[in-house]
Amino acid sequence: MGRSISSVRMGVKRIAERWERTAKAMKKEDRVYAIKLAGLVKKHSSEVFYTFDDPLEAAVFSVLIELVKELDGDVDTGLLTFQKQRRSLD
């Protein structure tokens, strides 16, 4: 018999997929951000599913970790770079 309850990892994957689908319905200038957020969710899905019971909490935690790392200058998620490029075009 298979699982009757989906794992947190599977839940996080479904959340990322929903966020990617939602991006298609957004304004063109916001779409890239939604796609990047969905990608950030996937970065930690393997690690965080051990410690969280709620897939949404795991997804948000994963995104927040990546954003804090970018603010500290440890990683480039592309969000700040993209924002600077947009400002220079305006």
Brief rundown of the structure:
The protein is an all-alpha fold. The protein has helices at residues 8-25, 28-43, 45-48, 55-72, 79-89.
Structure description:
The structure is a single chain. The chain is mainly α. It has one domain. The protein has five helices and no strands. It has helices at residues 8-25, 28-43, 45-48, 55-72, 79-89.
Distance between the termini: 57 Å
Oligomerization state: single chain
Compressed to H and E, one letter per element, the order equals HHHHH
Helical content stands at over 70%
What are the segments in which pLDDT stays under 50 over at least 5 consecutive residues? none
SSE layout and pairings?
Elements: H1 8-25, H2 28-43, H3 45-48, H4 55-72, H5 79-89
Core attributes:
single chain; 90 residues; mainly alpha; 5 helices
